[in-house]
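Reopening this ticket.

The earlier resolution said the output was attached, but the attachment link was broken on my side. Pasting everything inline this time so it's all in one place.
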Amino acid sequence: MKVLAEALTNILVPLGFIFLLVSLKKKSLQPIATLFFRIIVGGVLLTAGYLKAGNTAEARMAVQAYKILPNTLAANLGYALPWIEIAVGILILLGAFVKYSGLVAALLMAIFVIAISQAWARGLSIDCGCFGGGGKVAAGQTKYLQEIARDTGLMALGIYLFRNPRGILGLDK
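Inline output:
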């Protein structure tokens, strides 16, 4: 399931980013773009949270592997993060509070980019734990650049949702 989630995300985020560039030029696409980006961002967050919520020990280990926070705080964040991702993902998918849930999604992605970047800069060999798993991996198995690009794209889509929260098929009116 993790491999499928990563593969779909690696396809959908670049497509979303291309559509983002097109929709910025053609304002009539905004309601459709908002729906498309809600599906991508909300789907990624819901999937990532769901895959981690089933194994909180792994989620805790993944956060601790970054070696940024004290172990107790990292463990607590590891338990809470999947549920935050699920809640924000559901809100975005439903089109509820899109302005604020899009902002939270963009902030989460910015934090993830910073965390992955510092792990890479410090020479840590870890799996990001984005879709479950996490922890130490062999040096050649890291995917830092791909993960940073993906999360930067998701951050851009979250910012778009913050700036353009009204779309079709959403609860926000």
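Reporter confirms the inline version is readable. Residues 2-163 form one domain. The chain is about 75% helix and 0% strand.
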